[in-house]
Write a structure and sequence with these properties.
- The complex is a heterodimer of chains A (293) and B (548).
- Chain A is mostly helical and 293 residues long.
- Chain A has two domains: 53 residues; 215 residues, Cytochrome c oxidase, subunit III, four-helix bundle (Four Helix Bundle (Hemerythrin (Met), subunit A)), CATH 1.20.120.80.
- Helix content of chain A is 71%, strand content 0%.
- Chain A has eight helices and no strands.
- The N and C termini of chain A lie far apart (56 Å).
- Chain B has one domain: Cytochrome c oxidase-like, subunit I domain (Cytochrome C Oxidase, Chain A, Up-down Bundle).
- Chain B is mostly helical and 548 residues long.
- Classes of the chains: A mainly alpha (293), B mainly alpha (548).
- At the A-B interface, helix 1, helix 3 and helix 7 of A face helix 2, helix 5, helix 6, helix 7 and helix 8 of B.
């Protein structure tokens, strides 16, 4: 079945890209650990790893694209494998965010109120920090000498609401791009896809601006107690995913420009759009539970 | 293991990739194994890696048992003892049982569902080749300045955050790599099973081993990202001033346990569901009867998996949760005994009135059913909240999980290897060596782990290198058993190598009573398992089959 004939399931021949990826991951992880321990070559190893990973992605995805253009992947079953793969990858990403949202809910519903003396926390409260009052957002931490609380937090209906609007709009523009790809209208697809990518970049710029305000003006930092912790870890990982998503959007823009997609063959476009919608939905949940309530 | 396999078909000359490209010289050999996209090669790599890690982590276990042979600080520094218990646990879970089952999955899934290979062969290679790097990172902690991780395989905060040694960061990154590997592997397994079945093989016609892996892959995709989240929180607490597990900032060390065990409990089913799958293949073969209650077996696996998401806090009854929560987790945990009981009864009913023979795989399978059930019952005892207050953190817990992991997961792996080895290599293993391996293992593991029940009930705490004098006798017995068990496993290694080199040729059918698709292929199975999908009748003989 390794035959490149049409209709058969394409079995990829031996490939050197996976091992390149493994070396990249190893350099990243080993480099990061060394960096944390102030070993001189830590950061170099880390960035070398990132470089190798980018090289691997160009090579590996390039290979898949060229396989596809040679018609090796024109097979319904093959297509389904890619689709299942992407679906379950996104599912695993959902679970990753689930861990952090779970931590947020536990902190808001249990740990902070208990430290404030509610329910089973009465004794802990009396013994450890009898002056601590449970509030959310947590402006005064139980032990301010260790963790200085923020002066204030961000206003829900300012930047965050604007960012919500930006991401929702980008969800609409990518759908327009999808229609255009299905109808093979290249110019429309390019415009809509370009708009989506620009909205992604705009979102990130706003986010950087918001972080600057948080750090400079509000004293809201990673180390400002558990509000800052959950705020930055959730929005930070989301921002990281938006960054990756935006890079993917730009790659797809280039591929539309090169005419890689047609009515039947545009799985990469759809995979990226699923990913983008996933990032979108995570933001909505984030907006509601981190910024709003 | 697949050298034989390739030798048999490497002579075929055509433009298809019918055999591996062995290239020339050492580089050719290395390239063949490093670049391979073949499910059999990758399965073999997984199995050998797991075999090496088994002996490494086993040596650690013997060091632990040697220290515990007599009371007092005899051999190991207490800190090193803690490092050994930590790494023994981490490596056995992530380095032995998980990769070995993925190895079985890689070999068997395409053979058993009539597919030419896994759905995403290049990704398959990557899933494996991340592992060696992860283990280098994990084991490097032993050689770094300061102690290796010494807080137990569960790496509870604050032992692993505020008080963790510097090497903890290397362990964190190793776990990130292991997680990536598992997620990619699980994506591949799930895509293969959902998409690559031979035409006509519906979900309810799949062998139970395939079902068990479908559900296991789903569990992995649900929990490995959560573990990644847990270790990321640890990392930021250690280095970037966050306070997830720091009460002074409003967090809670108990939160770590919740996140960890949300991963950890489904994880124990990741370690045992494929074992259930292996048993459900092997027992019918040697009973010469179809599996009793196929659809119940499938639904039991599904219910165990779903229940596993709502039982996690039974690992933490003594941390001070509200009583309502403790009761909830007690009842849900006990509920798991129902589907597990269904499985045990159905294996026994499969054997009932069967024409049983006891080749090595069947011996291990029967021992599995019996001994795993002992572990299941001690699990039920631990599930009872008030009783758990007494058992928590004693050797009773150690006895419990070693009974489900050693004669459970490890025996199932051994069963699977003996059962399918003739199909993989085209050669029969030595039945005499197999029987020696079985009897020595089965007896010695009971000598090792059974006394631990008594030690635990009498109050001996786990993870402590020293103990009170009255515990000496049982500890001596356990240590003797452990050494016999450890060295008996060398028989297994010898048997495998002997099979590959000198075993007698095996037939395609191998076992008289075997019925799956894999037995319709010649032994060794061709490099691209099913070039053309086999014909599956609309009513594949699984459930409605008359007795053979």
């Amino acid at each position: 079945m390794a035959t490149p004939e049409k209709g058969g399931y394409y079995l990829a021949p031996p490939s050197h890209w996976p091992i390149v990826g493994s070396v990249a991951l190893f350099c990243i992880m080993f480099g990061a650990a060394h960096w944390l321990h102030d070993v001189e070559y830590g950061p170099y190893l880390f960035f070398a790893g990132i470089g190798i990973l980018i090289f691997m992605m160009f090579g590996w995805f390039g290979q898949v694209i060229s396989d596809n253009q040679r018609g090796l992947l024109d097979n319904k079953q093959m297509d389904h494998s890619f689709r299942w793969g992407m679906c379950w990858f996104i599912f695993s990403e959902v679970m990753f965010f689930g861990a952090f949202f779970g931590a947020l809910f536990y902190i808001r519903i249990f740990s902070v109120p208990w430290l404030g003396g509610e329910g089973p926390g009465a004794i802990t409260h009396l013994l450890l920090w009898p002056n601590f009052e449970s509030t959310w957002p947590l402006l005064n931490t139980p032990d301010p000498s260790k963790f200085t609380g923020p002066k204030s937090v961000l206003d829900t209906w300012g930047l965050p609401a604007l960012n919500t609007l930006i991401l929702l709009t980008s969800g609409a523009t990518i759908t327009v791009a999808h229609w255009a790809v299905l109808k093979e209208r290249r110019i429309q697809a390019l415009v809509a896809q370009g708009a989506t990518a620009l909205l992604g970049i705009l979102f990130l710029v706003m986010q950087v601006h918001e972080y600057t305000i948080a750090y400079m003006e509000k004293g809201l930092t990673l180390g400002s107690g558990v509000f800052g912790t959950t705020f930055f870890m959730l929005t930070g990982f989301h921002g990281l995913h938006v960054t990756l998503g935006t890079i993917m959007l730009i790659v797809i823009f280039v591929r539309i420009y090169k005419g890689h997609f047609n009515k039947q063959r545009h799985f990469a476009f759809e995979a990226v759009s699923w990913y983008w919608h996933f990032v979108d939905v995570v933001w909505l949940v984030l907006f509601v539970f981190v910024y709003w309530f | 293991m697949s050298e034989q396999n390739t030798a048999a078909i490497g002579t075929e000359e055509d433009h298809h990739h019918h055999g591996p490209d062995n290239g020339k010289g050492l580089m050719g050999y290395v390239k063949r194994w490093v670049f391979t996209t073949n499910h059999k090669d990758i399965g073999t790599l997984y199995l050998w890696t797991s075999c090496i890690m088994f002996f490494i982590a086993g040596t650690m276990a013997l060091l632990i048992r040697t220290e515990l042979f007599q009371p007092g600080e005899r051999l190991l520094d207490p800190d090193f003892f803690n490092q050994m218990t930590t790494l023994h646990g981490l490596i056995m879970v992530f380095g032995v049982v998980m990769p070995a089952f993925v190895g079985l999955a890689n070999w068997q899934i395409p053979l058993m569902i009539g597919a030419p290979d896994m759905a995403l062969p290049r990704l398959n290679n990557w899933s494996f080749w991340i592992l060696p790097f992860a283990f280098i990172l994990l084991i490097s902690t032993l050689f770094l300045p300061g102690p290796a991780p010494n807080f137990g395989w569960t790496f509870y905060a604050p032992l692993s955050t505020s008080y963790g040694p510097p090497s903890t960061d290397y362990m964190i990154f190793a776990i990130h790599l292991l997680g990536i590997s598992s997620i990619l592997g699980a994506i591949n397994v799930i895509a293969t099973i959902l998409n690559m079945r031979a035409p006509g093989m519906g979900l309810m016609q799949m062998p139970v081993f395939i079902w068990s892996w479908l559900i296991t892959a789903f569990l992995l995709l649900s929990i490995m990202p959560v573990l990644a989240g847990a270790v990321t929180m640890m990392l930021t607490d250690r280095h970037f001033g966050t306070s997830f597990f720091e009460a002074a900032g409003g967090g809670d060390p108990v939160l770590f346990q919740h996140v960890f065990w949300f991963f950890g409990h489904p994880e124990v089913y990741v370690l045992i569901l494929p074992a259930f799958g292996v048993m459900s293949e092997v027992i019918p073969t040697f009973s010469r009867k179809p599996l009793f209650g196929y659809s119940f077996m499938v639904w039991a696996i599904i219910s165990i998996a779903l229940l596993s998401f709502i039982v996690w806090a039974h690992h933490m009854f003594t941390v001070g949760m509200p009583v309502a929560a403790q009761l909830f987790f007690m009842y849900t945990t006990m509920l798991i005994a129902v589907p597990t009981g269904i499985k045990v009864f159905n294996w026994v009913s499969t054997m009932y009135k069967g024409a049983l023979t006891f080749e090595t795989p069947m011996l291990f399978a029967v021992a599995f059913v019996f001994l795993f059930t002992i572990g299941g019952f001690s699990g039920l005892m631990l599930a009872i909240t008030p009783a758990d207050y007494q058992y928590q953190d004693t050797y009773f817990v150690v006895a419990h999980f070693h009974y489900v992991l050693v004669p459970g997961s490890i025996f199932a792996l051994i069963t699977g290897v003996y059962y399918w080895l003739p199909k993989w290599t085209g050669r029969m293993y030595s039945e005499a060596l197999g029987k020696w391996h079985f009897w020595l293992s089965a007896i010695s593991l009971n000598i090792t782990f059974f006394p631990m029940h008594f030690l635990g009930l009498a109050g001996m705490p786990r993870r402590i290198p020293d103990y009170a004098l009255q515990f000496t006798d049982f500890n001596v017995i356990a240590t003797l058993g452990a050494f016999v068990f450890g060295f008996s496993q060398l028989i297994f290694l010898v048997n495998i190598i002997w099979t590959i080199r000198k075993g007698k040729p095996a037939t395609g059918q191998v076992w008289e009573g075997a019925h799956g698709l894999e037995w319709q292929l010649p032994s060794p199975a061709p490099y691209h398992s099913w070039e053309k999908p086999p014909n599956i009748l609309p009513h594949h003989p699984r459930e409605n089959e008359p007795s053979y």
